[in-house]
Amino acid sequence: MNLNIATLPLPSLREVRPGHGRRSRIGNIDLNHLALRQFRNVAEFLQPSSPVPDRDAIVSSARQLDRQYSGMHRAPCIQMRLRCLTALRAMSKEPEWPLQANLRQPIERIVDYAAKAQHLIPQRLPVIGGLDDAILVDLAWPALRFELDDYLSFRRLRAVEAQLCGLHPRELRFGRAQWLESLAAEAAMLHRVRRRARSPYETAPSAAMFRVHG
Fold first, then answer.
1. How many CA atoms does the CB half-sphere of 62 hold within 13 Å?
2. CA distance linking residue 185 with residue 14, whole number of Å
3. Looking at the domain assignment, is residue 202 inside a domain?
4. Which of 35, 48, 87, 144 has its CA 20 to 30 A from that of 104?
5. Residue 87 sits in which domain range?
């Protein structure tokens, strides 16, 4: 999973002074005032020191995406962030990957907002459905991306270890400590492989598969 969302940026959410937004409709959809308030509350929680995206800016970005990706089910930049949200939700529920409150709370706020029946931009809309969720993921991303990178590495190495042990990944006792051990073992193995590739005639012991047991 490519987690570099900078490769598919959302349109610029230019700052518009509160109360001066001109546009409030996307097609025949009026942005719901209650949903806008809920969206702004979450956005302010995620980045309290930064301006919250204005309604006019959100509508402008939605229109830009609608023109750029007309005919598609969903804009790729939105789809990528929704995939990241799915991974963040899984991370927050993983019993073997406990999170500190400063990481858990932003995820919970976004997940709670995304689960509400009333969205600022309805999920059913083609191309731009989920844009509000995607914007919130963008706001939280600087604080969460490295933890999510580590979590996905944890998931990958747990699956490898479970396969070696003949177990389902969730049957294996495998937490952060075991992940770090497996990560170090994998790095050491890759170093040996690269060293042998540079010196094909060098005699060296064969690299053992890394395994961590609880």
1. 30
2. 46
3. no
4. 35
5. 5-143
